[in-house]
# Entry
Amino acid sequence: MKKRSFMIVLVCTCAAFALTACKTPFSSGESSSSKIVTETTTEAVQTTGTEAVTKYIIPQLLGRTEDEVKKELSGVRIAVMHAYDEDYPAGQIFKANVKEGDAIYTGQDMTIYISLGHNYGNDVIGMDGEEARAYLESHGVQVGYVSEGNPTNDPALVGKVYECSFMGEKALLDVYSDGVPEGAAEAFSEQNTDGQTGEETTEPTSGQTDVQTTVQQEELFNTSVE
# Structure
């Protein structure tokens, strides 16, 4: 009889425990409101007024286009830089200041670098100025100017490109000049301690003003003064 009573009590106790467990939600140690981004790339994590702050997971960037990335990370402020790169074709991202898998939030900044492709400016070093211009333009590169720069006493280098730089999308070519750059001698002759210009003039005499131009011109004009 005692054994039968003990079994009844045990069964009732187990049933009560099972009923209590069903009514109590299981806890994993995290609040029910916490979320972890796993398969999705975005998640609304906070709402301030009517504006949602979104958490983005940086996707694969290298080799993709600016438009693709801006579409996926629409809430992020993305700065775009352009530079030449031999490994990625023009228009593709070849570098960024964030890496795949990083978290970034609405309104935060990141920078991507878009390839301009092969740097044709490197190819024209040593070419004649006009030859270099034609080469660049044949590859779709606009040329801003061809300018004489460093002087050289080597006739073989005169007119050859020694530097190609870029201002925006335009190439700027610098070529060797022959000896002293044009205008340097004149500028030097005009510099003196008493402020004279280097031109030879004569003092006015009795009703006439004789104006003598520079020695190089060697022409004399008389202007009568009434």
Summary: The mean pLDDT is 73.
